[in-house]
Write a structure and sequence with these properties.
Layout: E1 2-7, H1 10-18, E2 24-27, H2 40-49, E3 55-64, H3 67-78, E4 84-91, H4 95-112, E5 117-123, H5 134-137, E6 145-149, H6 164-176, E7 180-183, H7 192-197, E8 202-205, E9 210-211, E10 214-215, H8 217-229
Parallel strand pairs: 1-2, 1-8, 2-3, 3-4, 4-5, 5-6, 6-7, 7-8
Antiparallel strand pairs: 9-10
Helix pairs in contact: 1-8, 3-4
């Protein structure tokens, strides 16, 4: 299992690195949504800090069904040299839209040719925002990693919307289709034992690494220590 921590700038990246680093550093902009896109110069600044072996993911935002716009954004972020391009399907309404958009994004990354992988994020509380149901569109999309997150950040976590058993079924189906999985969604230290038992390839965090909304070394160290104990 790999650990992903989401950060918004080089200062937060430095806090993660001071705590020992993680497998995947995910660059996003929480001010523009659940997986808001950050500016290219901020992504470059973060990447210049990182030691070898740290993989980098960068979001292209909470997407509507606009395959042209989305594929152009994916192509541009991939040109920065990231390992993963993250696409939130927040505004995608149907499984058919999810399937078509995923194909456009995959083609954009293939056309760019740098080898960046595609992470698609769906939402366990999809009905609260009118998003497509990821437990269904996992059967149709094409990507390297499929992520489950929570769309509404109101103190509830992914385990409030999906049981461990349902999440295991999601992971198993994704694996059968050749995709890795990332489970995220306001997971905190008390949730870790159940989260680890799901069997996801990646666990994603931000809030658990934050103090007053900002990623801090002490919180990252606490999180990583709890994961090692498990």
């Amino acid at each position: 299992m790999r650990v992903l921590i989401s950060i918004k700038d080089k200062e937060e990246a430095s806090e993660v690195l001071a705590a020992g680093g993680v497998d995947i550093l995910d660059i996003k902009n929480p001010g523009e949504g659940t997986l808001g896109a950050n500016k290219p110069w901020i992504i470059k600044e973060v990447m210049q800090l990182l030691p070898r072996g740290t993989e980098v993911a960068a979001s292209i935002g909470d997407l509507d069904y606009k395959p042209g716009t989305a594929s152009l954004a994916a192509y541009g972020v991939a040109r920065l040299g990231v390992d993963y391009v993250v696409a939130s399907f927040y505004g995608v309404k149907t499984c058919k839209q999810a399937e078509k958009l995923s194909r456009a994004l995959k083609r954009a990354l293939a056309e760019e040719g740098g080898g960046a992988k595609l992470i698609i994020s769906g939402y366990a509380d999809y009905w609260r925002t009118g998003s497509a149901n990821p437990f269904e569109f996992v059967k149709h999309v094409s990507c390297d990693v499929i992520m489950l997150d929570t769309a509404v950040k109101d103190g509830q976590n992914i385990l409030d919307f999906a049981s461990v058993e349902r999440l295991r079924e999601f992971v198993d189906l994704a694996h059968e289709r050749g995709m890795e999985t990332c489970i995220s969604g306001s997971l905190r230290i008390p949730h870790l034992e159940r989260a680890v038992s799901i069997g996801s390839d990646i666990l994603g965090f931000r809030g658990a690494a934050c103090e007053a909304g900002v990623v801090k070394r002490s919180r990252v160290e606490e999180l990583l220590s709890a994961l090692r104990r498990l």
